[in-house]
Design goal:
Blueprint lengths: L2 E5 L2 E3 L5 E8 L8 E6 L5 E8 L4 E4 L7 E6 L4 E6 L8 E9 L2 E5 L3 E5 L2
Parallel strand pairs: 2-11
Antiparallel strand pairs: 1-3, 3-8, 4-5, 4-9, 5-6, 7-8, 9-10, 9-11
Length: 117
């Protein structure tokens, strides 16, 4: 059974950092792309990034430029996305999803990120 669970969100001050985790089961995170998508309060879904741990490849939205790192742990079957220099506009629920034919077929429940002083 495929499952994804996000963690690592929380309340952080502007300029701080958070490392978001996407732990998967039922498939290997190294076998496919993992997406990050976010939803700010009252807004629609916004694509954040797409990560291939096997090739260490990432595609990301312009707003992440210069302030992220990513990694994967095959033993834990987990993908990480660290976002630095957080801004209030990064406040959102962050979801990870498993790629299927350039879309997402499985989603996690999300983790809340709140950037506020």
């Amino acid at each position: 059974q495929v499952q994804l669970v996000e963690s690592g969100g929380g309340l952080v001050q502007p300029g701080g950092s958070l490392r978001l985790s996407c732990a998967a089961s039922g498939f290997a995170v190294s076998s496919t792309w993992i997406y990050w998508v976010r939803q700010a309060p009252g807004q629609g879904l916004e694509w954040v990034s797409k990560i291939d741990i096997r090739t260490s490849t990432i595609y990301y939205a312009d707003f992440l430029e210069g302030r992220f790192t990513f990694s994967g742990d095959n033993a834990k079957n987990t993908v990480y996305l660290q976002i630095n220099s957080l801004k209030s506009e990064d406040t959102a629920v962050y979801y990870c999803g498993k790629d299927h034919n350039w879309g997402i077929d499985y989603w996690g429940p999300g983790t809340q990120v709140t950037v506020s002083s």
